[in-house]
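Collaborator request, handled under Task 6.
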Amino acid sequence: MRHTLAVLVENRPGVLTHISGLISRRAFNIESIAAGYTEEPDTTRITVVVQADELELEQVVNQLSKLVDVIKITNLTATDSIQRELAMIKVKASSETRSDIVDIVDIFRAKIVDVNRETMVIELTGEETKIDALCEVLKDYGIIEIVRTGKIALSRGPIPAKHG
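Structure tokens returned to the collaborator:
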């Protein structure tokens, strides 16, 4: 099963390397990892998506909890949460196909962020399935390049209880 973990850590050099190294040493594949600043300047939030069963996940969480720089770990898979990715997709766009691509972009509520004679770059924020669906439709026009951020997530509603 896929699990999304939110890991709050001290904002120090090497912390991301320690976290990803610990997970990969346990032979878990990191499907997605995203790190960024939080509302606290000395805290970084790392969102990690891993494929693991419940026992394996418990082992990963226990090991992460032992790292000195880890402040808090929340399993967002088990809570009501909002999860998003950002993707930029460069697609072939001739004068004949450009208006069709614009229509598709509108349907998906995406944005065109760059245009030139031969290509368009489309930006889309949403759930993984929405991004996958847009990529599938754009394949017919010729995808040149795709970049995705990986998942970020927040729990919904009231502030969740503190976890070790």
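The cover message to the collaborator said: "Residues 61 and 73 are 7 Å apart (CA to CA). The mean pLDDT is 90. Please let us know whether this matches your experimental observations."
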